[in-house]
Structures are given as structure tokens and as C-alpha cells.
Amino acid sequence: MFTPASNSSGLFDRTSVEVAPELLGARLTRHSALGHITLRITEVEAYLGVGEDPGSHSFRGQTPRNAVMFGPPLHLYTYFTYGMHVCANIVCSPQGQSSAVLLRAGEIVEGVEQARANRGEHVALRDLARGPARLTKAMAIPLSDGGASMVGDVYSLELSDDVHDVGTSVRTGVSGPGGSAAYPWRFFLVGDPTVSPYRASAPRKRD
Prior knowledge:
mainly beta, nine-stranded antiparallel β-sheet, 3 helices, disordered C terminus, DNA binding, MPG_sf, MPG
């Protein structure tokens, strides 16, 4: 069973660390003129705010780039990584604070052919959205959608009522203090084949 996030908007007034595990199993849909693509979320990471989380874009304060993180919850925060890939996050916490959940991986459950047109017709189903950059490419989420409502005309989000076996780890690909055991804020569905491979570190930090 699924519950529209619009019916549970108060849940997103909490921090990303609290919200992140509850997004597992949720269905995110992007609507476009070509139809719609729906993703079942299987892996996420939580990022907190100013002075709290050295792995977060908002650690040092608000900038034009991260301003959406300080806005109202249930909006999309997008950014470029390595100058070529778009990553997508769902903003949490009351307006004025900064907290977001990175969508790391999922399973395309509707609009598979459209997702394959975006990613490649021979890409295996489990790999269509297995990783944050693959996820946004499969769903055709552009950088320009940053700030979009997750409960509007373009995006809709439904939370799962099921009980899931949730695994945790330190965040993947984050170097420096933000990637340490002090921040075990990667959450994933145990045993799901669409969960992305864990990387212990990366040559550059998320921020």
C-alpha cells in the first residue's frame, strides 16, 4: 500500500536522517509530455545542515547553489557532480534549516521503455537507476528541475506502508570527515539488486 506524500507532508518537517529510511520502498514519479516514469526507491543518503555535517553542501552556509536546501520541505534539490552528472535530493526540515535526502538508487517500475530510451535500450532493468547519476538520467530529471515540488504537476511521491529490511552504512563516495563512521547515514533495502555498489571513498568531497 502507498500513501501520497501530500497527505503526510508534516513528516518532512523532520531531519533528513529521520526521513531517509522512510523513503525506502516509496514510489517517485516524473510526469512529462512523453508519459511518466515511476521509480521504487531502494537506496538513499541523508545530509544535514550548517555546521552539522561536513559532507553536506550546506555545511558552510547558504549560497545561490544550495538555496533550495534552505527552502520548504518536499521540494527537489538538484546539483551537478563532476561537471557532468545531475543528482537529485528531496529537501526535509522546516524552511530556514537545511537538510536533504540524496536519491542514490531505485527500480524503474513503470515507464521502463522510456527509461531505456534515456539510458540505452540494452541496459539491464536492475541497472537503469542503480546509482544517483543513472537514476536522474533514467528518469530524465534535469538540473533545471531544482526547486520543483515533489507533490506538484511534474513530480508525485507515494510513501510505502510496508515494513522493510533496512541496512545502513557510512555514505558512499564521500571523502574526508563526512565519509567517516560518525555519519552512518546511507540507508538501503537489504538484498535488493538495484542497490548501488558501495564505494569507500572518492577523490573529491560532495561539497
